[in-house]
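Mods, move this if it's the wrong board.
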Amino acid sequence: MGTTLTSQNSIQEEIKSRLKSGSACHHSVQNLLSSNLLSKNLKIKIYSAIILPVVMYGCETWSRTSRVESRLMVVENRRMFESRRDEVTGKWRKLHNEELNDLYCSPNIIRVIKSRRMRWAEHVARIGERRGVHRVLVGKPEGKRPLGRPRHRWEDNIKMDLQEVGCRGMDWIELAQDRNRWRALVTAVMNLRVP
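Not the wrong board. Structure tokens:
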């Protein structure tokens, strides 16, 4: 299941690889997901057990951008409920994203990724500064940075997630030391309404 690394440390290739693998998994179980013999709940369990783990492998370390989020939402909305018979006209039609979200009734992929990243952040904050993972994810590189807007960092995502739940400007490493409070924040991030 390895990860894809580039010389520019871009996450785009990794996302593309994960989505390609997820599409292959989706295609392999398409007969089950489109079957009328299986219940909605069983289809959701198949999707959650087979497709989602492949797409979200290593998502804890991804730097979130709006482009990445939109690509992931496209995969999420291409689930197992592709069409439905209209009650008035009797014709088949594709479902809109809101209808898909109502049918799926589970947290969407963006919220799941945010909560996993928050759980990983707690682990990173607790392991200490001497460990390599902490230095890579939180450390500040030396030297000059290239011209232009700085790229979005993993730590910036943690700060944005905390800002969404009302913890603006707080030091996330200090917050993560209190397990109960951090778990409450992870739950709050998971329950946010993401368009």
